[in-house]
Amino acid sequence: MNSKISALCKKRDLLVIFRGLAQDEAFRRLMVLLGSDCEDQANFIADYADFVSALYESGTVDITEHLLRITLEDENFFIVKTAKDKKPPLLVQECLLHELQFIQELSELTPDDFIEDMDYDGYIPRWENSPADIIGSYMERVRLIGQYGYGKYAGNSMFIFRDGSIVPVRYPDEQKLSELYGYETQRKAVMDNTLALVEGRPALNALLYGDAGTGKSSTVKALVNEYSGQGLRLIEITKDQLRDIPAIIDEISGNPLKFIIFIDDLSFTSGEDCFGALKATLEGSVSARARNTVIYATSNRRHLVRESFSDREGDDIHRNDTMQETLSLSARFGLRVNFSRPDKKAYTAIAAELARSHGIDLPEEEIVLKAEQFAISSGNGRSPRTAKQFVDQLRSDMELSAKG
Description:
Blueprint: H1 3-11, H2 25-34, H3 41-57, H4 63-73, H5 77-83, H6 90-107, H7 111-115, H8 134-143, H9 145-148, E1 158-162, E2 165-168, H10 184-198, E3 206-210, H11 216-227, E4 232-237, H12 245-252, E5 258-263, E6 268-269, H13 276-282, E7 293-299, E8 305-306, H14 319-327, E9 335-339, H15 344-357, H16 364-378, H17 384-403
Parallel strand pairs: 1-4, 3-7, 3-9, 4-5, 5-7, 6-8
Antiparallel strand pairs: 1-2
């Protein structure tokens, strides 16, 4: 075994701050490879292949890129303390620098460092190395922790709540603000409020209500994509998880990032009591107050409640009080924005803008006519969603015609 690998092998068990990196399969396999006995050629070659396989499966062939990513995203006691403005002791800071130097040295390992000890002359899979200052990159991430975050929040911007944990969305919505047309006044109100949150100013909980397909959810997700680089994250929950809001806020309240807890398509039927936790959060109860968090909800109903005539009947003397409490829930959102269904002029204008953005070179009069015909024939009525569906179909038809 060459001297470089021998020296690294002695250091591998001394990780303290970055001990959690061993949870990453490629890193774990690399540690096994460092300690592998080259005298046992069969196992040595197998350990080499196990590491390369794990590295490839991680989505990269670059060892430096992988090690830098998992180091920057590692949630360890140093970064957590730093995020809470609790400066770690000097001994911990000294330990951090030594471990980062160790990871830097790992990132510079080449296949040849191991192949020279192999008694094999056939094809051997390899990896790449790219130049990187891991120590400098990590210290810069620490300095800008309010912008990048740490742990799972460093590499992801959208999350869901599942089985009691906040987990990243595997395939997040990539909606962009530049791809949304119409509703400029409504969108600006939500944008201004979101910017207040991002910049650390007081921000309001917001209810975006109105007709289906008008871009309420798209607006929220587009704003997260727009400002994720400035520290904005989204955690989406369902109505059934409203009782988990206090636990979610407890977990993120000390985080330097800013969070939108997002509830899509929210509505209640009379008799449901799961809105209690939401009500407590909107009212700013002691257990649900966090300056880095707002609640954004979308609904097709301004008052968030489905009400039937049968709800007005019965012998429950407290029924009226219960209904009034549910109906008044929407009033507890500081910002309420109405996304109503567009009229013909607004709808066709959105369709025309979308068509132009996709490079569809048709006279505007023709697009307007076809868009209106599509809204009627589809049965979906006029909405930004219908306009997008129309343009998608128009693009498909034009591509098919071009192939013919």
